[in-house]
C-alpha cells in the first residue's frame, strides 16, 4: 500500500514509519520539518508543509491508499492548541475529499471510553486533562459525520517499550485493565487496520 503518515516525527509517528516499512509498504511522511527522520534516509518520501493547510495537504494526499495519523498537540498543551485536533480533523476530512482518498486510521485517546471502570479513563480525563477530552471528542465527531472510511483508535497511556506484537483489541471499548500500550504495538495495529475493511467506521480500544 501507499501510506501517508501525519505526525510522523513524534514517537508514535516514527513507529508508524518503522512498522509500515517492515510490512513492505511505500511511505510518505508529511511534516513541517524533516529533522528526526534521518534514520530512514532514502527509504521514505518526505514532503514538507503545514498539515493545517487544506490545499497543501490535499495535494500530497493524492495517489495514496490510506492516511495513518498520529498527529496531536505537544504536551503540556498550550492554550493556543486547545482546539488543534478539531481544526486538524476539519482540514484533513476536507483535504481527503478533495484528493479522492477515503481510508484513514486516526489516533485518539482512551479518555473517551465512558464505560471503562478499571481504569476509569473518562473520569481521569475529565479531571486531569479536560482540554484533551474536549478536543479529541471534537476530532472524532468530525470524522464520524463525514462519509470517509475511518477507523479511530483509542489507546491508553503510550510507552516507549519495545515491540511485542502481543496486544489486546476491543471494538467500541477499552480492554479490561487496559492501562498502557507500547507505541510500536499501536503502530503495528494501525498498519494492519489500514487494509482491514471490517474496521471501517469503527472505534477501537487497544492495550497490552
Structure description:
The chain is α/β, with parallel strands linked by helices and 208 residues long. Helix content is 35%, strand content 22%. It contains six helices and ten strands, in the order E-H-E-E-H-E-H-E-H-H-E-E-E-E-H-E. The strands form two sheets. An eight-stranded mixed sheet has the order 3-2-1-4-5-6-10-8, sandwiched between helices. Helix 1 crosses helix 6, helix 3 packs parallel to helix 5 and helix 4 crosses helix 5. The relative contact order is 0.16.
- Uncertain spans, ≥5 residues at pLDDT below 50? none
Instruction: Give the termini separation.
Output: 27 Å
Main sheet overview = 8 strands, mixed
Rg result: 16 Å
Structural class: alpha/beta
Shape: globular
**Spatial order of strands in the largest sheet:** 3-2-1-4-5-6-10-8
Helix and strand element order:
EHEEHEHEHHEEEEHE
**What is the beta-strand fraction?**
15-25%
- H/I helix tally: 6
Rounded mean pLDDT score: 96
List the quaternary state of the chains. single chain
Q: How helix-rich are the residues, as a percent range?
A: 25-40%
Total beta-strand segments? 10
